[in-house]
What we know:
This protein has 3 helices and no strands.
Amino acid sequence: MLPSVPVGQRYSILEGFVSNGLNHETLKKPENAQLKHLLSKRLSINPSERPSATEVLQDPYFQDS
């Protein structure tokens, strides 16, 4: 199930990612471990290591628990 993030907080979270990358405080929380793993795969420097959109949607982060 997708976590619900209020619209007002989305900008600050995205701004934090730009500033801090995967070290953003949101990603340090244990409940966001799957999100951090997914983002680290999607942000790989080597394009051949990045999952496709289909693979991303099959990631456990997007599956109902």
